[in-house]
Amino acid sequence: MMTKKKQPSSKGNSRSKSKSKTYEEQKLKFKSPAEFFAENQNIAGFDNPGKALYTTVRELVENSLDAAESIRTLPEVHLKITELSNKSFSQAQGLSVQDRVDKALYRGKKKGKKTKGDKNSDDESDDEHGEEANSKSQGSQKYFKLVCKDNGCGMKHERIPDMFGRVLAGSKYGVKQARGKFGLGAKMALIWSKKSTGLPIEIKSSHTNNPDESSDFITHCILDIDIHKNEPNIRVHEKVPNDEAWHGSEVAVTISGNWKTYKSRVLNYMELLAVITPYAHFTLEFICEDNPKKSFTMDYRRRSEQMCKLAKEVKHHPKSVDNLIVRQLLNMTKKKTLEQCLCSDLQGINKPLAKRLIDELEQLTDQNFDRDTLCSRIDTRTVQQLTAMLNDTNVFAPPDSRCLSPAGEYNLRLGIMKQFQPDLVATYTSKPGSYNGHPFVVEAAVAFGGAKGKPGLTIYRFANRIPLLFEPGNDIVNIAANRRVKWSSYKINHKTDKVGVFVSIVSTKIPFKGTGKEYIGDDVTEMAESVKTAISRCCLQLKSKLTARRLERDHAARARNLAKYVPDCSRALFGVLSAMKEGYEANGAKRRKVEDGVIDKVKTEMISKMSSGEVTQASISSKLIEAIEQADHAMALEQATKRGRGQASRCNVHLIPEFFSENGTPEQVLFKGLAAGSEARSETIFHPMMALKLMECCRVNT
């Protein structure tokens, strides 16, 4: 029986043709940088409303710090966060506050099935649950107005629209250390504001290059951003008189956020920022319009007046370039030949070295490269070979570290002492290192004890003087502190002792990992070794101090242990002396005359003092305690002398009594020391016993 083959249906063919036709007719679309970051907001730290609020705070505050440091003035940053009520937010949008009409649209879903007997009660409960869901949904969406004001350099009038309304437009690009991770600044906050509230950003700024001078006017600008065109939509751009002679910037933006879950993050960020920048004065003011009791103000006062040095922009290091950078340098250079370009646009290349590099490049290209070729006409193949040769060459000097601006041990120590008040702090700064042509410096501090400390290791991380609060697990500092440092060898128990580890890494290129750049990877060997070395050097400093403190505690414990036996010893000694006195008095006069010749004078005086009541159990106890204290003082002097040897330079000194105290006791005499062979130089010093007296007074006062 013959079977007929099924013919393909015309309907199927028409479908496939329509699909292919539709695919062919699809238009090629383009996205602006603003559109890209608006759709991928998690890359810039705007994962959710809470994280967006934290990131906006960080961007505004760091911009203020950069502006103040650029003109070498001590930063004054005031941050005001206002949790808006529904009425205030509606007024900001130009709307009137109205209640919801169709409440069924906002009512929560019913849970469970109804039973016949509970029909009426279920209806009532559903209404109650609907009202509750209605109130929760209205309260879950919170809006915040952030205002950040500083005393920095401000911004030029004509640049403000592009600086806030055009993504990837900024003045911080170049080979030098910078606080920003992406170069977005407040632009991403404006994009988040446009998505969540639809309100524009408001800027007031007075530009100056001299902190002692100010501009005659203040720029007032209100603008929005065109996401598709990546251009600012300017609503107000005017100049107003500067009657108060103020310089700086004030930025106000309204966004949606979650203060309840990210309050601790914001406070922790401000506290750590005060640690790494103790020369700045921060004020955080939070206002809750619905509940004024939740409002508060935090004042992070300035502790130091020594600012960090400014990072200088430098040229690219030959080992840090790639094909794109080399091509950019060749296109933008003012020199004609490649030899001249290498000498002028890259670090560490002089004419003899440039000539050697050109000779090597000619050999690599089989004499196809002409050294007289114009830079703009060098082909792609030659650029690739030149880049590979520069990356593989090992004759270049280390990268220039002037492009870095570390906090400094002085500021780091002051910041830690101010915010955490530990018992001991040790700091260390590594020598400038490099990886792939990028310089870096590691600063570390280890704090021990203190009332604010927590048992165990508490790690604080900084990158380019920015606190890192998220994703600490795989961070280079966390791995070094928990896995590579042997705490027991430094007399530190990292599980029970209160130990705070502070590590700040500054570089022209921080090797961040993760989408949001929240931690530093451990794959850079040079940087990982520097972090471990810095922490170990801090621990080595603490080791001697901890050993001395343990000795002092042992001495104090020894004195306490001896004092425990004083009552028993004094009672036993007094009992023996009393028995001697009774036996002496019980003998007759003739017997006592015989014994007087045998008993020595000391025993006779002791028995007489016993008879007169001068020697009692209380007097014996006081003498024993006094003997313990004198022994403790002598031991302390010996330890202090041992610690002093080798730590200070020695010279022969002739001591001349200068004057006595009111009591005139020898141990309180002050002396004038004259160095041997130098009669002109003299200084007043204390007698060692006087130093012990001062130490004792300090113990009592503290």
Automatic annotation (TrEMBL):
GO BP annotations, alphabetical order: DNA topological change
The protein, known as: DNA topoisomerase VI subunit B transducer domain-containing protein
Pfam families: Topo-VIb_trans (PF09239)
Record flagged with keyword Isomerase: yes
Keywords: ATP-binding, DNA-binding, Isomerase, Nucleotide-binding, Topoisomerase
GO terms assigned for molecular function: ATP binding; DNA binding; DNA topoisomerase type II (double strand cut, ATP-hydrolyzing) activity
CDD domains noted in UniProt: TopoIIB_Trans
InterPro entries tied to this protein: HATPase_C_sf (IPR036890), Ribosomal_Su5_D2-typ_SF (IPR020568), Ribsml_uS5_D2-typ_fold_subgr (IPR014721), TopoVI_B (IPR005734), TopoVI_B_transducer (IPR015320)
Residue span, DNA topoisomerase VI subunit B transducer domain: 399-556
NCBIfam families: PRK04184.1 (NF003218)
UniProt keyword DNA-binding, yes or no: yes
TM annotation in the entry: none
Sequence segments annotated as region (Disordered): 1-26, 106-138
Basic residues bias (residue ranges): 1-20
